[in-house]
Write a structure and sequence with these properties.
The chain has about 350 residues and is mainly beta. The protein is about 0% helix and about 45% strand. The chain contains 1 helix and 26 strands. The strands form 4 sheets. Strands 2, 3, 4, 6, 7, 9, 14, 15, 16, 18 and 19 form an 11-stranded antiparallel beta sheet that branches. A hairpin with a 7-residue loop joins strand 12 and strand 13. It is globular and about 60 Å long.
């Protein structure tokens, strides 16, 4: 049930204290179907599970299948994940990995805010699809969306999702509009970076996205005390009686980053907006990586942090492409934050 967003958050971000829990750019996978089955029983590529259904009878949806979750060449720089929704009035898609509770349990004491950032390309938005496609953070029972974000395939409108209790309504999972009609709409056919967070202590849910104030917007959720247990890429019919869904829509997502923090470290205003597509290679790498982009945007700096969020290298580039030395870094996984005159993007690399 869609509700008007309850309030805008005021204030600025604090010093970075986040630790990285999950990163995924899909470049280690192979183009094609993620899974060989849709019951969620057997893991496919990258240890991802897929559950896809047409919904309970009677239903007009007929397209549930392994092609609902595909690795495609249209990612932000290389490969990305394409989720395709139902083509009728019912149905859903869920793609996830097991093992997140252990990552959350091992976080630094006091880091009780889970933050999720992802690049989203909504496509042209020219279909009639009512599909809502995005990413959810679930509780252990899987019945509460602690924080989520979806984009409507037809209109490219962005929604915040949260288990909450809007005034005059029962507690439940609600989609929140981010602005008066036509809402906050992502640009067509390009990637935009979006961030959501859930505070276990207060229940507060925040979203930051293009078109919002720098501090983002949010609601007070009704799940304070609940631990996040699963990150799912999702797709839903979006059907309503007034506007029935008859067409499947697709959205591409890339560069998932999940962090634990003790304060708001979600992407700042200059990290949002249209994302230039970058190539970072070789990956894995030994002594250096080359960074190039698909436009004339100038790369000003490249920051490298380790998986615990510690800054290990800060490089000035001031060019449209260039090389960054990794010679002084130990073997392991690192996060590159690439700052340009058109915004920021994040890439994961492996130093051999």
């Amino acid at each position: 049930m869609k509700k008007t967003l309850l309030y805008l958050l005021m204030g600025a971000s604090f010093a970075t204290t986040a630790q990285t829990l999950v990163t995924e750019n899909f470049n280690s996978l192979v183009a094609g179907d993620v899974s060989t089955e849709i019951t969620g029983a057997t893991a496919g590529q990258g240890s991802y599970f897929l559950f896809a259904t047409n919904g309970t009878a009677p239903t007009t949806s007929t397209n549930a299948g392994v092609t609902n979750a595909q690795i495609v060449a249209g990612g932000n720089a290389s490969l990305g994940l394409q989720i395709t929704g139902p083509n009728g009035d019912k149905g859903s898609r869920f793609m996830w990995k097991d093992g997140f509770p252990a990552l959350w349990t091992a976080r630094t004491i006091g880091n009780d805010i889970i933050e999720l950032e992802v690049d989203i390309n909504p496509g042209a938005g020219t279909t009639l699809s009512r599909n809502n496609i995005g990413v959810y953070i679930f509780n252990a029972a899987g019945d509460r969306v602690l924080a989520g974000v979806v984009v409507r395939a037809a209109t490219r409108e962005l929604f915040l999702v949260a288990y909450s209790t809007p005034t005059g309504n029962p507690v439940g999972n609600y989609n929140y509009s981010l602005a008066a009609a036509p809402g906050i709409q992502l640009p067509a056919d390009v990637f935009s970076r979006v961030g959501i967070s859930y505070n276990k202590t207060t229940g507060q849910v925040i979203i930051k996205a293009p078109g919002l104030a720098a501090a983002g917007a949010g609601v007070v959720g009704s799940s304070a005390g609940s631990d996040p247990a699963e990150i799912d890429f999702v797709g839903f019919s979006g059907n309503t009686t007034a506007i029935p869904n008859t067409v499947a829509g697709s959205v591409i997502m890339d560069n998932l980053l999940v962090k634990a923090s003790n304060t708001d470290t979600l992407l700042s205003v200059d990290e949002m907006g249209t994302i230039t597509q970058f190539s970072v290679y070789p990956n894995p790498a030994n002594d250096f990586v080359t960074i190039s982009n698909d436009s004339s945007s100038v790369i000003s700096t490249v920051e490298i942090t380790d998986i615990n969020g510690r800054l290990v290298s800060n490089n000035e580039l001031n060019a449209t492409e260039g090389q960054i030395s990794l010679a002084d870094l130990a073997s392991g996984v690192y996060i590159l934050t690439i700052t340009t005159d058109q915004g920021k993007t994040v890439k994961k690399i492996v130093k051999q």
